[in-house]
Amino acid sequence: MLFGADLAFAQIIDVIRNDISLPEDVDAGDAKPADIDGDGDIDFVIKDFNGIPGAAYTHRIAWVRNDGDDNWAVLPLSNSEFGGSDLPFDVADMDNDGDLDVVTGSFGSTSSLGTFSGQYAALRVYTNNGEGSFTRTTILETNFFNQFFTGAKYIVGVTTADLDRDRDLDIIFLQRGSVNRVAWVPNNGNGSFGGVQVIWQEDGLNPRGVDTGDVDRDGDI
């Protein structure tokens, strides 16, 4: 609990920790709070490692439903995605219907030589129907046939912002590996997305995270 008119002078009076019990087979990583099912209490969206350490580096995105009485249920949202520890996601209302959707990216799988080839990497949107069930839309995907192109592989960061000022949220994503770039895809507002627009790209760097804001105070992101 914070008291004070200004955050710099606020005092922390008390902190109460509430633990959330998850099933033993859930290996949760990142977590973001969100009311996914629209029942007025806070649920969580998590990254869950469901692979085999040292062999199959796969994760899935799941959401943890809060029933309001301190009971929690883990509900898978995505299928398994490949890519070491990298399965970035964001929670935002992508279709302007008042509920929260989930955007995911993935790094890709390893090749038979043990190096990351980027196969099966993808940039996806999971559209929420308002009650916690989702429809998947794949925007970019890397497979066996196009693995030598940039595509979706090596995605390590995902966020959302209205870059083109059309009052819907676009997707910004970060890639590192054989390509190091920040790019975005415009949201068309009807459940579809435009082509990839490169914001910044430079070889030899190793970007790790991405965020947005009005840095120069000119009214755009």
Comma- or semicolon-separated keywords:
four-stranded antiparallel sheet, five-stranded antiparallel sheet, globular, Neuraminidase, 221 residues, mainly beta
Any overview of this molecule?
The strands form four sheets. Strands 3, 4, 5, 6 and 7 form a five-stranded antiparallel beta sheet that branches. Strands 8-9-10-11 form a four-stranded antiparallel beta sheet, with no helix packed on it. Strands 12-13-14-15 form a four-stranded antiparallel beta sheet, with no helix packed on it. The protein is globular. The chain has 221 residues and is mostly beta strands. The mean pLDDT is 81. It has strands at residues 2-3, 11-12, 28-34, 43-49, 58-66, 72-76, 81-82, 89-92, 101-105, 122-128, 134-141, 155-161, 170-175, 181-185, 197-201. The chain has one domain: 6 Propeller (Neuraminidase), CATH 2.120.10.10. The protein has no helices and 15 strands.
Structural class: mainly beta
Are there runs of 5+ residues with pLDDT below 50, and where?
none
Q: Summarize the amount of helix as a percent range.
A: under 10%
Total beta strands: 15
Strand percentage: 35-45%
In CATH, the topology is named Neuraminidase
* Multimerization status: single chain
CATH architecture: 6 Propeller
Question: What's the structural domain tally?
Answer: 1
User: Could you tell me the mean pLDDT?
Assistant: 81
What is the string of SSEs from the N terminus onward? EEEEEEEEEEEEEEE
CATH class: Mainly Beta
Helices, by number, come to 0
The biggest beta sheet reads: 5 strands, antiparallel
- How does the overall form come out from the CA principal axes? globular
Report the span from N to C terminus: 32 Å
Please state the CA-atom Rg, rounded to the nearest Å.
Answer: 19 Å
